[in-house]
Amino acid sequence: MSLALPLIWAVLIAVAVFAYVVLDGFDLGVGILFPAVHGHQERDVMVNSVAPVWDGNETWLVLGGGGLFAVFPLAYAILLPALYMPLTIMLLALIFRGVAFEMRFRARHDREQKRWDRSFMGGSYVAAFSQGIALGAFVQGIKVSGRAYAGGWWDWLTPFSLMTGLALVAGYGLLGACWLIWKTEGDLQARFRHLAARFAWGTLAFIGAVSLAMLLLNTPFRDRWLTLPRAAGAALVPLVLLALAWLFFAALKQRRELAPFFYALGFFLLAYIGLGVSMWPMMVPPNITIQAAAAPPATQAFLLWGASVLIPVILIYTGYVYWLFRGKVQIGVGYH
């Protein structure tokens, strides 16, 4: 089987997952930052900043999961039982969070609204943490026998996966703070600028810790990063990350509004590229490759025609919504 179609689909699914992480990431980050503000008016501003776009952000999760099921069925059949628990908790948290998102605006008194605010916040933390745990469990390797998952029920729960869970919470908090710098003004914006700096230090520290743990965790990862000539190209990733970190903190100091958000996206992109350098060409580490996990070529080609129509439509819709609801969100003026 030609590698061209599996490679195209692997790239498309990787892009869909990355789009979900960064778009729904700042959305979840807004909930993660709820404890940092006081009063329903400030929380209304935070929620109203994402209200027009948060449903569309999760479209990329459906596209990535659906693409994996249709195009890489072997990978889907192995990964799902390996990650049942964190993925189920994540989905329940997203559902619970979505209900709280709407119900907090319909609360009849302050006490009821506070309960929904806590639900929204809790759902955000649990969903982000569960996603990070699933990522860590995936990266550390999946036990496979033949074409089936051969691990235990609790293999996903390790010190490494707990660390990646905390790392993603910190990263989403960073994205949420940078988004709110862009969408708010005045004292509230200043508070999020301060929080963005704190979450950035935490995110960068976690990127370093996770990267070091990956080198110790897996010999192939270590070979890709530390053995020449691959190490020469791979070294660009941490160097560019350091440059972006400098630009990020400079932008915060200069009180720029949009730049910190895009620099924070750059942190995620470089971490994602680093993950790709470590994993390639594995679809299910450490043994199932992209080509081995792929569906028959006819299936891939047929689905690619549908994706060539669907993905541009999603991109156009997403871009239009973000453009339509551009600008600042002010107290007392909102989406709802």
Question: What brief labels describe this structure?
Answer:
two-stranded antiparallel sheet, single chain
Could you explain the architecture of this structure?
- The protein has 336 residues and is an all-alpha fold.
- It has one domain (4-324).
- Helix content is 77%, strand content 3%.
- It contains 15 helices and four strands.
- The chain has helices at 4-32, 40-50, 54-57, 59-71, 73-82, 84-103, 110-139, 159-183, 186-217, 219-226, 230-234, 236-253, 259-279, 290-293, 297-324, and strands at residues 144-145, 148-149, 282-284, 288-289.
- Strands 1-2 form a two-stranded antiparallel sheet. The chain has a two-stranded antiparallel ribbon with strand order 3-4.
- The longest helix is centred in the middle third of the chain and has 32 residues, at 186-217.
- The termini are far apart.
- The model has no long low-confidence stretch (mean pLDDT 88).
Domain count: the total is: 1
Number of E-type strands: 4
Major sheet description: 2 strands, antiparallel
Largest sheet strand order: 1-2
Low-pLDDT stretches are none
Helices, by number, come to 15
What is the CA–CA distance across the termini? 52 Å
Backbone shape: globular
Order of helices and strands: HHHHHHHEEHHHHHHEEHH
Mean pLDDT: 88
Helical coverage, percent range: over 70%
> Which structural category do the helix and sheet elements fall into?
mainly alpha
Instruction: Give the C-alpha Rg.
Output: 20 Å
- Strand-residue fraction? under 5%
Layout of strands and helices, then pairs:
Elements (H helix, E strand, L loop, with lengths): L3 H29 L7 H11 L3 H4 L1 H13 L1 H10 L1 H20 L6 H30 L4 E2 L2 E2 L9 H25 L2 H32 L1 H8 L3 H5 L1 H18 L5 H21 L2 E3 L3 E2 H4 L3 H28 L12
Antiparallel strand pairs: 1-2, 3-4
Helix pairs in contact: 1-4, 1-7, 1-8, 4-5, 6-7, 7-8, 8-9, 8-13, 9-10, 12-13
